[in-house]
Amino acid sequence: MPRRARTRPEPLSVKPIAKSSKLADVCYDIRGPVLDKARQMEEEGHKIIKLNIGNLAVFGFDPPDEIVQDMIRNLPSAAGYTDSKGLFAPRKAVVHYTQEKGIHGVTVDDVYLGNGASELIVMALNALLDNGDEILVPAPDYPLWTAAVSLSGGRPVHYLCDEGAGWLPDLDDIRRKITPNTRGIVVINPNNPTGALYPPELLKEIVEIARQHELIVFADEIYDKTLYDGNTHTSIASLADDVLFVTFNGLSKNYRSCGYRAGWMVVSGDKRDAKDYIEGLNMLASMRLCANTPGQLAIQTALGGYQSIKDLVAPGGRLTRQRDLACELLGQIPGVSVVKPKAALYMFPRLDPKIYPITDDQQFAYDLLADEKVLIVQGTGFNWPQPDHFRLVFLPNSDDLAEAIGRIARFLDHYRKRHTA
Prior knowledge:
Elements: H1 33-43, E1 49-50, H2 65-74, H3 88-100, E2 111-115, H4 116-126, E3 134-139, H5 143-151, E4 155-162, E5 168-169, H6 171-176, E6 182-188, H7 200-213, E7 216-220, E8 244-250, E9 262-269, H8 275-287, H9 293-304, H10 309-313, H11 318-331, E10 336-337, E11 346-347, E12 350-351, H12 361-372, E13 374-375, E14 377-378, E15 390-393, H13 398-420
Parallel strand pairs: 1-13, 3-4, 3-6, 6-7, 7-8
Antiparallel strand pairs: 2-9, 4-5, 8-9, 10-12, 11-15, 14-15
Helix pairs in contact: 2-9, 3-9, 4-5, 11-13
């Protein structure tokens, strides 16, 4: 009897697995599609000069040796969970640090340790925001803030920083954008991506706005020791005790310890009406169990040890030299201008739209990567509204930095000639 041929079953229609709708307005272009293209090019054998991220270790900036040694010595006893807010000793060290910064009334119970400041930023917004609540965020911003507001169900409302005024926040724009739904204002000082440093007079104005409208001030101060030209930093939370402040800091930048993921959050100021919010923070801190213990063990040693960041930012220090070189070389390119950073690790150059009529700055970054093997992040990746800026990280050593900016200059020269023609 002949065998019957088997019939294949009809293929089932497979429903695609979609990402959460909460991610619809979330982006993080510092590690976005242009970086994915750079990785692909590296796999194909190309050498890419990366000016896209402030990852200090890959540029030869090592953490202070006493931090490394202290973590090594304590690692055998670091396997257990800690208190959900963190170990007592590093939290006490953070309290002492707030006292040095002039922030009054902080106790150990007001300090939360986290897996970097990034985790704590997300936690602080998750604990606060309901759907439709608004948070004022600077433009340009560190894009985690915009993403975290959106992911928490809130609406980021961007207030402009004024390039003509050294990238200081536009106070009138802040006032115009406050609505009955506004819950807080984000202040990134020193600023990423512009390198701006805010004077006390401006910070007092922001505090007054927060006071009048009962806003929480979220202060991102992760670069508060990376200061050039003798500048000093003022913590906004030191300027009032009748406004609620949530301040973020950590070891990633000032102590070149990005991978240790050691950050902290401090709640200060007027906490009388914030008991429910603080209960929410405590709940979220407990849900993640604790921050990584080895990273916590580095905090006390870092804050109490030799502040080697001062050598890097001093006149003639490596970071100062590289900042000055980048500003000088960029300033020699026709149609490029840049505000010299007073702090942090970045600058935010402007491309004159009359000379560089860019309509899609992500495509501009793609083309620069493809043609010159240099990786940057486009300005709109920092929620700047126009495609006429990009962020440059000045961490590569001077030779590599000069090579990278030389390639950018060559690319822009070709761009000008194409569009002039």
